Amino acid sequence: MLEQRYRWKNKHLREHIDVLDGNRAPHILLKNTTYLNQALRKWMKANIWIYEDRIIYVGEKLPDNIDNCEMVDCTNQYLVPGYIEPHSHPSQLYNPLSFSRYASHFGTTTLINDNLPFLLQLEKKKAFSLLKELRNIPVTMYWWSRFDGQTELIDEDTVFSHGAVKSWLEHDAVLQGGELTGWPKLLDGDDMMLHWIQEAKRMRKKIEGHFPGASEKTLAKMTLFGADCDHEAMTGDEVMSRLLQGFYVSLRHSSIRPDLPKLISEIHELGIDQYDKFFYTTDGSPPSFYEGGFIDCLIKIAIEHGVPVIDAYNMATINIARYYNIEYLHGNIATGRVANINFLTDMMEPAPVSVMAKGKWVKKDGEVIPDEQEIEWSDFDFKPLDLDWDLSLKEDFEFSMPFGIELVNNVITKPYSLSNDVGHEELTFDDDECFFMLIDREGKWRINTILKGFANKLCGFAGSYTNTGDIMLIGKRKRDMHLAFKRLKEIGGGIILTEHGEVIHELPLKLQGIMSTKEVPELIEEENELKSLLCERGYRFDDPVYTLSFFSTTHLPYIRLTQRGVYDVMNKTILFPTIMR
């Protein structure tokens, strides 16, 4: 549990009253504001007093005491609440600190985050200590509690023990259970998952679904089980079916599903003109997706596609806060709320020129305010990978499976029958078949197969950026794959490309091999370079970062490489088990 149960202690609340009484000065006074009042659904005039991280007063009055108070004239500006991302995966190469810092520069000041990397990589005490540390940064962070690992884990009963899941659900910073990537197990009679859902509901916390392509009947069952929201609608009809079954709907606009323009157009065609049950989400996209902005871009799309302006802002602010029962802190500019405020030059332009998070400027008059906040990641067991084992070219690089895995798009895979002889040191460059290996990060097991459709000129690739943090090798030439693995060991995890005996690209991920310590703008450049190099070598899709992380995830069809072996998603069976080393 968090050490401080309440956001403001009694002495802080007395100080806030002293500001109103004139015994203390506010730290910041925003004068002559035009702000969005969501209770009245109007743009209104007011003066706003801020003390430390809290809005103390919104109204016509000015404070009696202004000693050492920073006064800002907001004439000709429009103030809206800080934006909220309700479905964040803060470990897509970036880390939670770097990601939140970058998001705040575009006005997103609250993130509701996936806890899966912490569940899989950290002992619970360390994870909770890190959550406590992250309370000190300008951006506000809340979390989900996962009920499954969205893959086949060897030690799933240990990772997702009742005690572990219940501890996360009870944590003050956790707002919901899910996302329910393992919902087929729920339908098949998994009573432990159902119990966790019941526990979350007892605690007045939400349940986030993950129901791509679900039928109306399945959606109805999920509502009865306790699911509250889903972000997987890909058409207007799917949005409507979710609304009719009682769901809130996160309208997704991500790197692999940039659906928001289509979704808004189609819901308007269906006659939907009420927006209170809609949010936006970028669904944890890789760094390059955010090059031009964050939730502000989604608000802009909504406005351009006919969503009324106030509703467009509400879908990024008050709708989310009300849904998660945090309206008393977030999502609106009103007395008592956390001072997360975006300053706009035009109500039709949601990209802010200034941003305040917890009463501190993170951006002012177009200039980013340097943030000196750092985290000593090693204190929380996020360190470079220490791989104290080796691969044998002779023994480990054997490929004798009768069928392989074909990549159909960014994330969907299917089985295919091998047509070529794969018993050589390298594969022909005339087609798009590659050797494909997943190896335990402890070196205890491996699974070898052939991957079709990923690239046709890729000599060697090694990556620790996988769903479980295990090691993935891909390539045409075994020696280049081996070289890539050796370089991966040397840098402590990351992504490596090799070609004819040379390393041609590396992207270090020094935090357990899954996250970088670098800032997002630098990661954008590195990701774009990786994407360019892979495309030159035959990768024909849009998002290699998602492709790599989803090779082992079992919430999408059809064939996956997991810790337990080659897994048939639809039939829920292991086709070929892992080989112990």
TrEMBL record:
InterPro entries: Adenine_deam_C, Amidohydro-rel, Metal-dep_hydrolase_composite, Metal_Hydrolase. Residues 78-362 form the Amidohydrolase-related domain. The keyword Hydrolase applies. Keywords: Hydrolase. It catalyses: adenine + H2O + H(+) = hypoxanthine + NH4(+). Belongs to the metallo-dependent hydrolases superfamily. Adenine deaminase family. This is adenine deaminase. It comes from Peribacillus muralis.
